[in-house]
Amino acid sequence: MDTNNKPQLTIYNSHSRKKEAFKPLNSPYVGMYVCGPTVYSDVHLGNVRTFIAFDVVYRYLQYLGYKVRYVRNITDVGHLVGDIDEGEDKIAKRARLENLEPMEIVQKYTNGFHDVMRIYNAISPSIEPQATGHIVEQIEMVQRILDNGYGYEVNGSVYFDVVKYNEEYPYGELSGRKIEDLLSGTREELEGQQEKKNPLDFAIWKKADKGHIMRWNSPWGVGFPGWHLECSVMSTKYLGETFDIHGGGMDLRFPHHECEIAQSVAADGKAPVQYWMHTNMLTVNGTKMSKSLNNSFLPHELISGDHPLLEQGYSPMTTRFFMLQSHYASTLDFSNEALQAAEKGYQRLMNACKALDKMHYDGDDNNYNQEETDAINQLVDQAFEHLSDDFSTPQAIARLFDLSKKINSYNEKKLDINNLNSNTLNKLKEAFPAIVFDILGLQDESASDNAEAMDGLMDLILDIRKEARDKKDWDTSDKIRNVLNTLNIVVKDGKEGSSWGMG
Ligand code: AMP
Ligand code: ZN
Q1: Which of 35, 72, 251 should be mutated for ligand 1, with most atoms under 8 A from CB?
Q2: What is this structure's pTM?
Q3: Looking at ligand 1, which residue's alpha carbon is closest to its atom 7?
Q4: What would the pLDDT profile of 155-184 be if each residue is shown by its tens digit?
Q5: Which CATH architecture has domain 284-439?
Q6: 3-279 in CATH: which number?
Q7: How far apart are CA 397 and CA 112, in angstroms?
Protein backbone atom coordinates (compact mmCIF):
# COMPACT_ATOMS: atom_id res chain seq x y z
CA MET A 1 0.00 0.00 0.00
CA ASP A 2 0.97 3.61 -0.36
CA THR A 3 2.00 4.93 3.02
CA ASN A 4 3.22 8.25 1.60
CA ASN A 5 6.72 6.74 1.61
CA LYS A 6 6.71 7.05 5.38
CA PRO A 7 8.86 4.74 7.53
CA GLN A 8 7.48 1.32 8.47
CA LEU A 9 5.32 1.64 11.55
CA THR A 10 6.34 -0.43 14.55
CA ILE A 11 4.10 -0.97 17.56
CA TYR A 12 5.06 -2.21 21.01
CA ASN A 13 2.85 -5.24 21.42
CA SER A 14 2.17 -5.69 25.10
CA HIS A 15 1.32 -9.34 24.44
CA SER A 16 4.71 -10.32 22.99
CA ARG A 17 6.43 -7.51 24.95
CA LYS A 18 8.31 -6.59 21.77
CA LYS A 19 8.20 -3.85 19.21
CA GLU A 20 6.82 -5.40 16.04
CA ALA A 21 6.41 -4.19 12.47
CA PHE A 22 2.76 -3.30 11.98
CA LYS A 23 1.24 -5.66 9.42
CA PRO A 24 -2.55 -5.41 9.32
CA LEU A 25 -4.40 -8.64 8.57
CA ASN A 26 -6.19 -7.11 5.61
CA SER A 27 -4.21 -4.04 4.58
CA PRO A 28 -5.14 -1.26 3.88
CA TYR A 29 -8.04 -1.99 6.26
CA VAL A 30 -7.27 -1.78 9.96
CA GLY A 31 -9.57 -2.73 12.83
CA MET A 32 -8.96 -0.99 16.13
CA TYR A 33 -10.94 -1.44 19.33
CA VAL A 34 -10.48 0.69 22.44
CA CYS A 35 -12.28 0.12 25.74
CA GLY A 36 -14.50 3.14 26.30
CA PRO A 37 -15.77 4.72 29.49
CA THR A 38 -18.22 3.37 32.00
CA VAL A 39 -20.84 6.07 31.94
CA TYR A 40 -21.79 6.36 35.59
CA SER A 41 -19.91 9.61 36.31
CA ASP A 42 -17.88 12.34 34.61
CA VAL A 43 -14.70 11.25 32.86
CA HIS A 44 -11.57 12.56 34.57
CA LEU A 45 -8.30 13.72 33.11
CA GLY A 46 -6.72 10.25 33.42
CA ASN A 47 -9.41 8.80 31.16
CA VAL A 48 -8.84 11.71 28.78
CA ARG A 49 -5.15 10.82 28.55
CA THR A 50 -5.94 7.32 27.35
CA PHE A 51 -8.48 8.48 24.77
CA ILE A 52 -6.16 11.21 23.43
CA ALA A 53 -3.35 8.65 23.07
CA PHE A 54 -5.57 6.45 20.91
CA ASP A 55 -6.85 9.47 19.02
CA VAL A 56 -3.26 10.05 17.87
CA VAL A 57 -2.92 6.37 16.93
CA TYR A 58 -6.14 6.65 14.89
CA ARG A 59 -5.01 9.88 13.25
CA TYR A 60 -1.54 8.60 12.38
CA LEU A 61 -2.83 5.33 10.93
CA GLN A 62 -5.15 7.34 8.71
CA TYR A 63 -2.35 9.70 7.78
CA LEU A 64 -0.33 6.67 6.67
CA GLY A 65 -3.18 5.80 4.32
CA TYR A 66 -4.82 2.99 6.27
CA LYS A 67 -8.59 2.72 6.22
CA VAL A 68 -9.32 2.38 9.90
CA ARG A 69 -12.51 1.15 11.50
CA TYR A 70 -12.23 2.46 15.02
CA VAL A 71 -14.63 0.94 17.54
CA ARG A 72 -14.85 2.39 21.04
CA ASN A 73 -17.61 1.12 23.28
CA ILE A 74 -19.80 2.76 25.86
CA THR A 75 -20.10 0.60 28.95
CA ASP A 76 -23.67 1.19 30.00
CA VAL A 77 -24.19 -2.03 31.95
CA GLY A 78 -22.74 -1.22 35.34
CA HIS A 79 -19.60 -3.00 36.44
CA LEU A 80 -20.00 -4.08 40.00
CA VAL A 81 -18.61 -1.84 42.70
CA GLY A 82 -15.14 -3.09 43.54
CA ASP A 83 -14.99 -4.82 40.16
CA ILE A 84 -15.51 -8.19 41.73
CA ASP A 85 -18.38 -10.46 40.87
CA GLU A 86 -20.46 -9.27 43.78
CA GLY A 87 -21.76 -5.95 44.98
CA GLU A 88 -23.88 -3.18 43.56
CA ASP A 89 -24.02 -2.08 39.95
CA LYS A 90 -22.26 1.32 39.68
CA ILE A 91 -24.83 2.77 37.26
CA ALA A 92 -27.76 1.63 39.39
CA LYS A 93 -26.09 3.04 42.49
CA ARG A 94 -25.60 6.40 40.82
CA ALA A 95 -29.19 6.36 39.53
CA ARG A 96 -30.41 5.93 43.09
CA LEU A 97 -28.17 8.72 44.36
CA GLU A 98 -29.24 11.15 41.66
CA ASN A 99 -32.84 9.98 41.69
CA LEU A 100 -32.78 9.20 37.96
CA GLU A 101 -33.46 6.19 35.75
CA PRO A 102 -30.30 4.14 35.05
CA MET A 103 -30.67 5.01 31.35
CA GLU A 104 -30.86 8.71 32.23
CA ILE A 105 -27.55 8.34 34.04
CA VAL A 106 -26.12 6.57 31.00
CA GLN A 107 -27.34 9.30 28.63
CA LYS A 108 -26.20 12.14 30.86
CA TYR A 109 -22.65 10.87 31.25
CA THR A 110 -22.40 9.72 27.63
CA ASN A 111 -23.30 13.28 26.58
CA GLY A 112 -20.72 14.66 29.01
CA PHE A 113 -18.08 12.30 27.66
CA HIS A 114 -18.81 13.39 24.08
CA ASP A 115 -18.55 17.07 25.10
CA VAL A 116 -15.15 16.39 26.66
CA MET A 117 -13.88 14.48 23.63
CA ARG A 118 -14.96 17.36 21.38
CA ILE A 119 -13.20 19.95 23.54
CA TYR A 120 -9.97 17.97 23.43
CA ASN A 121 -10.41 17.53 19.67
CA ALA A 122 -10.58 13.74 19.71
CA ILE A 123 -12.19 12.38 16.52
CA SER A 124 -15.33 10.30 17.07
CA PRO A 125 -14.87 6.58 16.53
CA SER A 126 -16.37 4.90 13.45
CA ILE A 127 -18.69 2.84 15.66
CA GLU A 128 -19.56 3.49 19.30
CA PRO A 129 -21.52 0.41 20.38
CA GLN A 130 -23.31 0.19 23.71
CA ALA A 131 -23.24 -2.90 25.89
CA THR A 132 -27.02 -2.81 26.46
CA GLY A 133 -27.56 -2.95 22.68
CA HIS A 134 -25.65 -6.24 22.46
CA ILE A 135 -27.19 -8.40 25.17
CA VAL A 136 -28.39 -11.03 22.68
CA GLU A 137 -24.86 -11.46 21.29
CA GLN A 138 -23.47 -11.65 24.83
CA ILE A 139 -25.92 -14.41 25.73
CA GLU A 140 -24.88 -16.25 22.54
CA MET A 141 -21.23 -16.00 23.51
CA VAL A 142 -21.93 -17.35 27.00
CA GLN A 143 -23.74 -20.25 25.32
CA ARG A 144 -20.78 -21.00 23.03
CA ILE A 145 -18.42 -20.99 26.02
CA LEU A 146 -20.75 -23.39 27.84
CA ASP A 147 -21.14 -25.62 24.74
CA ASN A 148 -17.36 -25.86 24.41
CA GLY A 149 -17.03 -26.92 28.05
CA TYR A 150 -15.27 -23.84 29.45
CA GLY A 151 -18.11 -22.56 31.59
CA TYR A 152 -20.52 -23.89 34.18
CA GLU A 153 -23.86 -22.76 35.50
CA VAL A 154 -24.60 -22.44 39.20
CA ASN A 155 -27.90 -21.18 40.50
CA GLY A 156 -28.69 -18.89 37.53
CA SER A 157 -25.16 -17.55 37.11
CA VAL A 158 -22.56 -18.77 34.60
CA TYR A 159 -18.86 -18.76 35.42
CA PHE A 160 -15.82 -19.11 33.20
CA ASP A 161 -13.75 -22.11 34.21
CA VAL A 162 -10.23 -20.66 34.27
CA VAL A 163 -8.54 -23.85 35.50
CA LYS A 164 -10.14 -25.98 32.77
CA TYR A 165 -9.21 -23.39 30.15
CA ASN A 166 -5.65 -23.26 31.42
CA GLU A 167 -5.29 -27.00 30.88
CA GLU A 168 -5.45 -26.34 27.14
CA TYR A 169 -4.50 -22.70 26.65
CA PRO A 170 -2.18 -20.45 28.61
CA TYR A 171 -4.15 -18.11 30.91
CA GLY A 172 -2.19 -15.07 32.08
CA GLU A 173 0.10 -14.64 29.04
CA LEU A 174 -0.92 -11.04 28.36
CA SER A 175 -0.29 -9.83 31.88
CA GLY A 176 2.67 -12.14 32.47
CA ARG A 177 0.99 -13.97 35.33
CA LYS A 178 1.12 -17.65 36.16
CA ILE A 179 -2.07 -19.37 37.22
CA GLU A 180 -0.28 -21.05 40.16
CA ASP A 181 0.76 -17.63 41.55
CA LEU A 182 -2.69 -16.22 40.95
CA LEU A 183 -4.28 -19.16 42.74
CA SER A 184 -2.04 -18.87 45.77
CA GLY A 185 -2.76 -15.12 45.92
CA THR A 186 -6.53 -15.43 46.14
CA ARG A 187 -7.25 -17.24 49.34
CA GLU A 188 -9.63 -14.85 51.00
CA GLU A 189 -13.28 -15.79 50.74
CA LEU A 190 -15.29 -12.98 49.22
CA GLU A 191 -19.01 -13.01 49.48
CA GLY A 192 -20.54 -15.07 46.69
CA GLN A 193 -17.24 -16.69 45.80
CA GLN A 194 -18.57 -19.99 47.10
CA GLU A 195 -20.53 -20.47 43.87
CA LYS A 196 -17.30 -20.65 41.94
CA LYS A 197 -15.28 -23.83 41.59
CA ASN A 198 -12.20 -21.70 41.83
CA PRO A 199 -11.52 -18.14 43.00
CA LEU A 200 -10.00 -17.22 39.61
CA ASP A 201 -13.19 -18.12 37.75
CA PHE A 202 -15.16 -15.07 36.68
CA ALA A 203 -18.83 -14.45 36.02
CA ILE A 204 -19.87 -14.30 32.38
CA TRP A 205 -23.54 -14.17 33.31
CA LYS A 206 -24.78 -13.14 36.72
CA LYS A 207 -28.18 -13.85 38.24
CA ALA A 208 -29.98 -10.61 39.12
CA ASP A 209 -31.18 -10.24 42.69
CA LYS A 210 -34.64 -8.81 43.24
CA GLY A 211 -33.32 -5.26 43.65
CA HIS A 212 -31.07 -5.32 40.58
CA ILE A 213 -32.54 -2.86 38.09
CA MET A 214 -30.57 -3.67 34.93
CA ARG A 215 -31.74 -7.19 34.05
CA TRP A 216 -32.47 -9.33 31.02
CA ASN A 217 -33.97 -12.74 30.32
CA SER A 218 -31.58 -15.51 29.41
CA PRO A 219 -31.56 -19.31 29.17
CA TRP A 220 -30.22 -19.28 32.75
CA GLY A 221 -32.85 -16.99 34.18
CA VAL A 222 -33.04 -13.24 34.69
CA GLY A 223 -29.63 -11.65 34.98
CA PHE A 224 -26.98 -9.47 33.39
CA PRO A 225 -23.69 -10.05 31.54
CA GLY A 226 -20.29 -10.23 33.23
CA TRP A 227 -17.88 -7.33 33.10
CA HIS A 228 -15.51 -8.65 30.41
CA LEU A 229 -18.04 -10.02 27.98
CA GLU A 230 -19.20 -6.88 26.19
CA CYS A 231 -15.78 -6.02 24.79
CA SER A 232 -15.23 -9.55 23.47
CA VAL A 233 -18.62 -9.45 21.78
CA MET A 234 -18.57 -5.94 20.35
CA SER A 235 -14.96 -6.01 19.13
CA THR A 236 -15.37 -9.25 17.22
CA LYS A 237 -18.86 -8.40 15.96
CA TYR A 238 -17.62 -5.27 14.19
CA LEU A 239 -13.99 -6.15 13.47
CA GLY A 240 -13.97 -9.93 12.95
CA GLU A 241 -12.90 -12.85 15.13
CA THR A 242 -9.30 -11.69 14.90
CA PHE A 243 -8.55 -8.01 14.42
CA ASP A 244 -5.54 -5.73 14.42
CA ILE A 245 -5.30 -3.45 17.47
CA HIS A 246 -6.91 -3.58 20.90
CA GLY A 247 -6.22 -0.71 23.25
CA GLY A 248 -7.03 0.50 26.71
CA GLY A 249 -5.34 1.70 29.88
CA MET A 250 -2.69 -0.45 31.54
CA ASP A 251 -5.07 -1.01 34.45
CA LEU A 252 -7.32 -3.02 32.12
CA ARG A 253 -4.62 -5.49 31.11
CA PHE A 254 -5.54 -7.75 34.00
CA PRO A 255 -8.10 -9.09 34.48
CA HIS A 256 -10.22 -7.38 31.81
CA HIS A 257 -8.13 -8.00 28.69
CA GLU A 258 -6.77 -11.31 29.91
CA CYS A 259 -10.37 -12.49 30.29
CA GLU A 260 -11.31 -11.11 26.87
CA ILE A 261 -8.66 -13.33 25.29
CA ALA A 262 -9.83 -16.38 27.25
CA GLN A 263 -13.47 -15.78 26.31
CA SER A 264 -12.76 -15.48 22.58
CA VAL A 265 -10.51 -18.52 22.51
CA ALA A 266 -13.00 -20.55 24.54
CA ALA A 267 -16.00 -19.49 22.42
CA ASP A 268 -14.50 -19.35 18.93
CA GLY A 269 -11.08 -20.98 19.15
CA LYS A 270 -9.25 -17.86 18.05
CA ALA A 271 -7.02 -15.31 19.76
CA PRO A 272 -8.90 -12.09 19.08
CA VAL A 273 -6.11 -9.54 18.79
CA GLN A 274 -2.86 -9.10 16.83
CA TYR A 275 -1.44 -6.05 18.68
CA TRP A 276 -2.31 -5.18 22.26
CA MET A 277 -1.58 -1.59 23.19
CA HIS A 278 -1.76 -0.21 26.72
CA THR A 279 -1.49 3.38 27.79
CA ASN A 280 0.14 4.19 31.07
CA MET A 281 -1.46 6.11 33.87
CA LEU A 282 -1.78 9.81 34.52
CA THR A 283 -0.60 10.21 38.09
CA VAL A 284 -0.78 12.91 40.73
CA ASN A 285 2.27 12.95 43.00
CA GLY A 286 3.06 9.48 41.71
CA THR A 287 -0.38 7.99 42.47
CA LYS A 288 -2.76 6.92 39.71
CA MET A 289 -5.45 9.51 39.09
CA SER A 290 -8.66 7.81 40.02
CA LYS A 291 -12.13 8.77 41.11
CA SER A 292 -11.99 6.49 44.10
CA LEU A 293 -8.75 8.07 45.40
CA ASN A 294 -10.21 11.59 45.27
CA ASN A 295 -7.22 12.88 43.35
CA SER A 296 -8.91 13.35 39.99
CA PHE A 297 -9.68 16.58 38.14
CA LEU A 298 -12.56 16.91 35.84
CA PRO A 299 -11.86 18.66 32.54
CA HIS A 300 -13.92 21.72 33.47
CA GLU A 301 -11.95 22.10 36.71
CA LEU A 302 -8.73 22.05 34.74
CA ILE A 303 -10.04 24.63 32.29
CA SER A 304 -11.30 26.99 34.99
CA GLY A 305 -8.46 26.31 37.44
CA ASP A 306 -11.06 25.83 40.14
CA HIS A 307 -9.37 23.05 42.13
CA PRO A 308 -7.05 23.12 45.16
CA LEU A 309 -4.22 21.46 43.21
CA LEU A 310 -4.37 23.95 40.35
CA GLU A 311 -2.50 27.26 40.29
CA GLN A 312 -4.40 28.43 37.21
CA GLY A 313 -6.68 27.20 34.44
CA TYR A 314 -5.21 25.32 31.48
CA SER A 315 -6.78 25.37 28.05
CA PRO A 316 -7.76 22.11 26.34
CA MET A 317 -4.97 22.38 23.75
CA THR A 318 -2.34 23.12 26.41
CA THR A 319 -3.50 19.96 28.17
CA ARG A 320 -3.53 17.91 24.99
CA PHE A 321 -0.02 19.10 24.20
CA PHE A 322 1.12 18.32 27.78
CA MET A 323 -0.14 14.77 27.37
CA LEU A 324 1.56 14.24 24.01
CA GLN A 325 4.88 15.43 25.40
CA SER A 326 5.17 12.07 27.13
CA HIS A 327 5.07 8.68 25.43
CA TYR A 328 1.73 6.91 25.83
CA ALA A 329 3.37 3.93 27.52
CA SER A 330 5.14 6.01 30.20
CA THR A 331 3.43 7.27 33.29
CA LEU A 332 2.75 10.98 33.19
CA ASP A 333 2.77 12.93 36.42
CA PHE A 334 0.53 15.94 36.64
CA SER A 335 2.18 19.18 37.75
CA ASN A 336 1.46 22.88 37.36
CA GLU A 337 5.06 23.46 36.21
CA ALA A 338 4.77 20.89 33.43
CA LEU A 339 1.45 22.36 32.26
CA GLN A 340 2.84 25.89 32.34
CA ALA A 341 5.80 24.72 30.25
CA ALA A 342 3.36 22.99 27.89
CA GLU A 343 1.42 26.24 27.54
CA LYS A 344 4.57 27.94 26.23
CA GLY A 345 5.55 24.99 24.05
CA TYR A 346 2.11 24.82 22.47
CA GLN A 347 2.23 28.55 21.76
CA ARG A 348 5.63 28.19 20.13
CA LEU A 349 4.25 25.61 17.72
CA MET A 350 1.21 27.74 16.89
CA ASN A 351 3.43 30.75 16.21
CA ALA A 352 5.69 28.67 13.98
CA CYS A 353 2.65 27.43 12.01
CA LYS A 354 1.46 30.98 11.44
CA ALA A 355 4.92 32.24 10.46
CA LEU A 356 5.42 29.32 8.06
CA ASP A 357 2.07 29.97 6.46
CA LYS A 358 2.95 33.59 5.74
CA MET A 359 6.54 32.95 4.66
CA HIS A 360 7.41 34.62 1.37
CA TYR A 361 9.74 32.58 -0.83
CA ASP A 362 11.77 33.87 -3.70
CA GLY A 363 14.41 31.16 -4.02
CA ASP A 364 16.09 29.61 -7.01
CA ASP A 365 16.18 25.84 -7.52
CA ASN A 366 19.43 26.17 -9.46
CA ASN A 367 21.12 27.99 -6.64
CA TYR A 368 20.33 26.81 -3.12
CA ASN A 369 22.25 25.88 0.00
CA GLN A 370 22.65 22.10 0.15
CA GLU A 371 23.53 21.98 3.83
CA GLU A 372 20.57 24.06 4.94
CA THR A 373 18.23 22.07 2.68
CA ASP A 374 19.53 18.75 4.02
CA ALA A 375 19.08 19.93 7.60
CA ILE A 376 15.38 20.71 7.06
CA ASN A 377 14.75 17.47 5.15
CA GLN A 378 16.41 15.50 7.88
CA LEU A 379 14.39 17.07 10.70
CA VAL A 380 11.11 16.43 8.87
CA ASP A 381 12.08 12.82 8.10
CA GLN A 382 13.12 12.27 11.70
CA ALA A 383 9.79 13.56 13.00
CA PHE A 384 8.02 10.88 10.93
CA GLU A 385 10.53 8.23 11.97
CA HIS A 386 9.66 8.96 15.60
CA LEU A 387 5.93 8.81 14.93
CA SER A 388 6.44 5.49 13.15
CA ASP A 389 8.46 4.24 16.11
CA ASP A 390 5.55 3.23 18.32
CA PHE A 391 3.94 6.68 18.08
CA SER A 392 6.81 8.45 19.88
CA THR A 393 5.15 11.82 20.14
CA PRO A 394 7.69 13.38 22.59
CA GLN A 395 10.57 12.87 20.14
CA ALA A 396 8.46 14.00 17.19
CA ILE A 397 7.60 17.16 19.14
CA ALA A 398 11.32 17.71 19.88
CA ARG A 399 11.95 17.73 16.10
CA LEU A 400 9.05 20.15 15.64
CA PHE A 401 10.75 22.45 18.15
CA ASP A 402 14.01 22.18 16.17
CA LEU A 403 12.06 23.10 13.06
CA SER A 404 10.31 25.97 14.90
CA LYS A 405 13.72 27.45 15.68
CA LYS A 406 14.60 27.34 11.99
CA ILE A 407 11.25 28.85 11.04
CA ASN A 408 11.74 31.66 13.55
CA SER A 409 15.20 32.32 12.18
CA TYR A 410 13.76 32.59 8.64
CA ASN A 411 11.03 34.81 9.96
CA GLU A 412 13.45 37.11 11.75
CA LYS A 413 15.75 37.03 8.70
CA LYS A 414 18.60 35.50 10.71
CA LEU A 415 18.54 32.72 8.15
CA ASP A 416 17.46 33.15 4.54
CA ILE A 417 14.48 31.04 3.47
CA ASN A 418 15.62 31.47 -0.13
CA ASN A 419 18.55 29.19 0.69
CA LEU A 420 16.13 26.25 0.53
CA ASN A 421 15.09 24.64 -2.71
CA SER A 422 11.37 24.74 -3.45
CA ASN A 423 10.85 21.00 -2.90
CA THR A 424 12.18 21.22 0.62
CA LEU A 425 10.19 24.32 1.44
CA ASN A 426 7.03 22.62 0.13
CA LYS A 427 7.81 19.52 2.16
CA LEU A 428 8.21 21.66 5.29
CA LYS A 429 5.04 23.63 4.57
CA GLU A 430 3.10 20.42 4.14
CA ALA A 431 4.61 18.28 6.90
CA PHE A 432 4.81 20.78 9.75
CA PRO A 433 1.11 21.66 9.97
CA ALA A 434 0.16 18.07 9.05
CA ILE A 435 1.97 16.78 12.13
CA VAL A 436 0.76 19.59 14.40
CA PHE A 437 -2.90 19.65 13.36
CA ASP A 438 -3.75 16.37 11.60
CA ILE A 439 -1.62 13.89 13.54
CA LEU A 440 -1.15 15.42 16.99
CA GLY A 441 -4.66 16.83 16.69
CA LEU A 442 -3.83 20.28 18.08
CA GLN A 443 -6.00 23.25 17.19
CA ASP A 444 -5.16 26.92 17.11
CA GLU A 445 -7.19 28.18 20.04
CA SER A 446 -6.73 31.79 19.00
CA ALA A 447 -8.11 31.18 15.50
CA SER A 448 -11.45 32.80 14.81
CA ASP A 449 -12.63 29.69 12.97
CA ASN A 450 -12.41 27.81 16.20
CA ALA A 451 -16.12 28.11 16.71
CA GLU A 452 -16.61 24.38 16.98
CA ALA A 453 -14.36 24.06 20.04
CA MET A 454 -16.07 27.07 21.56
CA ASP A 455 -19.48 25.45 21.00
CA GLY A 456 -18.28 22.28 22.70
CA LEU A 457 -16.87 24.22 25.63
CA MET A 458 -20.04 26.22 26.06
CA ASP A 459 -22.20 23.05 25.89
CA LEU A 460 -20.16 21.65 28.75
CA ILE A 461 -20.29 24.85 30.80
CA LEU A 462 -24.05 25.20 30.34
CA ASP A 463 -24.54 21.53 31.27
CA ILE A 464 -22.63 22.13 34.50
CA ARG A 465 -24.63 25.28 35.18
CA LYS A 466 -27.87 23.38 34.63
CA GLU A 467 -26.77 20.67 37.04
CA ALA A 468 -25.93 23.34 39.62
CA ARG A 469 -29.33 25.01 39.15
CA ASP A 470 -31.13 21.66 39.38
CA LYS A 471 -29.41 21.14 42.71
CA LYS A 472 -30.26 24.73 43.71
CA ASP A 473 -26.53 25.39 43.97
CA TRP A 474 -26.95 29.10 43.18
CA ASP A 475 -23.36 29.96 44.16
CA THR A 476 -21.97 27.84 41.34
CA SER A 477 -24.57 28.87 38.77
CA ASP A 478 -24.08 32.58 39.57
CA LYS A 479 -20.32 32.20 39.45
CA ILE A 480 -20.51 30.64 35.99
CA ARG A 481 -22.81 33.41 34.74
CA ASN A 482 -20.60 36.15 36.20
CA VAL A 483 -17.38 34.75 34.77
CA LEU A 484 -19.07 34.41 31.38
CA ASN A 485 -20.29 38.01 31.64
CA THR A 486 -16.76 39.23 32.23
CA LEU A 487 -15.81 37.38 29.03
CA ASN A 488 -18.67 39.17 27.27
CA ILE A 489 -20.65 35.94 26.90
CA VAL A 490 -24.32 36.33 27.71
CA VAL A 491 -26.43 33.38 28.84
CA LYS A 492 -30.15 33.44 28.18
CA ASP A 493 -32.45 31.08 30.07
CA GLY A 494 -35.58 30.04 28.23
CA LYS A 495 -38.21 27.31 28.38
CA GLU A 496 -36.18 25.14 26.02
CA GLY A 497 -33.03 25.43 28.13
CA SER A 498 -30.18 27.93 28.13
CA SER A 499 -28.50 29.46 25.14
CA TRP A 500 -25.53 31.79 24.84
CA GLY A 501 -24.22 34.54 22.65
CA MET A 502 -21.53 37.18 22.56
CA GLY A 503 -22.70 40.34 24.34
P1 AMP B 1 -13.09 3.48 33.01
O2 AMP B 1 -14.26 4.35 32.68
O3 AMP B 1 -12.67 3.54 34.43
O4 AMP B 1 -13.27 2.06 32.50
O5 AMP B 1 -11.84 4.07 32.21
C6 AMP B 1 -11.82 4.40 30.85
C7 AMP B 1 -10.40 4.32 30.31
O8 AMP B 1 -9.54 5.24 31.00
C9 AMP B 1 -9.75 2.94 30.49
O10 AMP B 1 -9.03 2.61 29.32
C11 AMP B 1 -8.82 3.14 31.68
O12 AMP B 1 -7.73 2.25 31.61
C13 AMP B 1 -8.36 4.57 31.47
N14 AMP B 1 -7.87 5.21 32.70
C15 AMP B 1 -8.44 5.23 33.95
N16 AMP B 1 -7.69 5.94 34.83
C17 AMP B 1 -6.61 6.39 34.13
C18 AMP B 1 -5.45 7.20 34.47
N19 AMP B 1 -5.25 7.68 35.69
N20 AMP B 1 -4.56 7.46 33.47
C21 AMP B 1 -4.75 7.00 32.22
N22 AMP B 1 -5.80 6.24 31.84
C23 AMP B 1 -6.73 5.93 32.78
ZN1 ZN C 1 -13.09 -3.41 27.51
Answers
A1: 251
A2: 0.89
A3: 47
A4: 999 999 999 999 999 999 999 998 888 877
A5: Orthogonal Bundle (1.10)
A6: 3.40.50.620
A7: 30
